[in-house]
Amino acid sequence: MKLQHISLFLAGLLFAGCSELEQVPESTASKNAVFSSEKGLELYANSFYDNLPTANDIIRSDEMADFAARTQVPDFIRDGAYGPRQSTGWSWTALRNINYFIANTTNPAIPLDVRRHYIGLARFFRAWFYFDKVKRFGNVPWINKAMDVTDKDLFKGRDSRTMVMDSVLADLNYATQNIRTTSDNSRTLITKSVAQGFKSRVCLFEGTFRKYQTSYKLEATAEKWLTEAVAAADAVMKDGGFSLNEAGGTDKSYRQLFINKTPVTNEIMLSAVVDPALSVFNDANWWWTSATYGARVSLTRTFVNTYLNLDGTPFTANPAYKTMTFTEEVKGRDKRLMQTIRTPGYTRVNGGTVEPGPPVFSYTYTGYMPIKWSLDDTYYDGGTRNDNSISTMRYAEILLNYAEAKAELGTFTDADWVKTIGALRKRAGITGGLTAKPTVADPYLQANYFPGISDPSLLEIRRERGIELSLEGFRFPDLIRWKRGELMQQVWNGFYVPALDKPMDLNEDGKNDVVFYKVKPATQLAGVTYINVAETVNGVPNPQRLSNDTSGELTWLSNIPRKWDEKYYLYPIPENDRLLNPEIGQNPGW
């Protein structure tokens, strides 16, 4: 936010740089004033940071995921509700700013290593820009120059995925080799390690996409990308100086990463920070607690079932797991569960008073109410007030990228397991299975998530990735690259309700919290929320039901069909952009 003052300056610069004006006002900086000094390059390069996601972008980024029950089914996966007219994202303004900088950073009066550093930053952000475009649209035009309005390439068609992604990799290689910044305590700058970390993210995505999305016929090139992912992650692990946060013990160390006012610097590599002095906040509490403002995202039971027991065994190995009540099923589990959703023992501060904080059914549809990003004081609930920093990249992701890429290559060892998955699980309080990779595939994961995967290690890595990175924006892209979009059809299920009209105490504080009914009783208990699970309400199908009618798992919006279609692996090109340039065509099925 401290960089916003340069936006008008740069707008004037770009205008002056691509127009043929006879006179330039004295208040307008010339191109030479910027590109003739290191300070000018630094000032310009700071504008690239506007391309990073904001804090609010990040906290909302998993609202479309297989594990996320929400107020409405996303239009994107509803037949006939989304198409080229609704599509967005085909914007290239940011790219011109980057390319203009690269083309003009040529002044020999500035030392070569300085110019290469700033060009490295620009090429990092160009790679960031293009990775987002390729994930969303597939083939896109590769543009590496600052075009003006007469350039014929403004109306060129799309280039091949291989050409664009090879160019992205070349940009990232240049960035990792030339960015000079190696440390940044603010965790807001692009350092050499952040560039390596992002390279591992990009290469893992592309390698697995090519392996599993076989219709592109790029499987033979997947190994190259996975090898690059391993090397980039390994560079961070060896030279980055990062470690998993363990301060606060297994009960607190994970969640601290998401609610701390300043980034937890041993693990957070890049962060969207707040600045109360400039009135820069985020709205995490408003989004994650409001009955009306946000999407009311809650985790599903199918996903919550994947959290292991503390001894390292699968929770679903217990034959009774399907009928365990909420308070029973959350005991003795991976301690990231209690740091991700409200469980017994969770409390909130209300006007200075500490109060129990059970799941609130004015918000949650499944009973699994997230707390990962929200603060525990109700003061923050009513608007854009949050002052916690929001992680954009952290070391745990790098460990997961390394583990998955090696498993996909068939080179994953027990030693790799110990320093990646074993380390993450140890931080979560898990005591068993930390020293050697598994030898038996978990049937629950195979049946409910990955029927085509038989490698026990790869199954567990995918389990770990889902849990560790939940609600951080990785899930939908992961489903795309694994070609598991069908998981978006999963039932939005919640905790088990043993009977109608039976009050439930969800946090074991001796006070009942919720009752599920078909016929509302004439007299209601004070402080208890009553949820109607009848077949219809006022003649309309009820979106909230029990799976066995009078008992069973909560279900939400099971009356609205969700059918995954192959075309959903890419977004459609927006209609207006195709009208401007018919050469870009349209993605299959749209």
UniProtKB/TrEMBL annotation:
Its main location: membrane. It comes from the Bacteria. Keywords: Cell outer membrane, Membrane, Signal. It is found in: Cell outer membrane. SUPFAM superfamilies: TPR-like. Residues 294-590 form the RagB/SusD domain. Belongs to the SusD family. This is RagB/SusD family nutrient uptake outer membrane protein. It comes from Larkinella rosea.
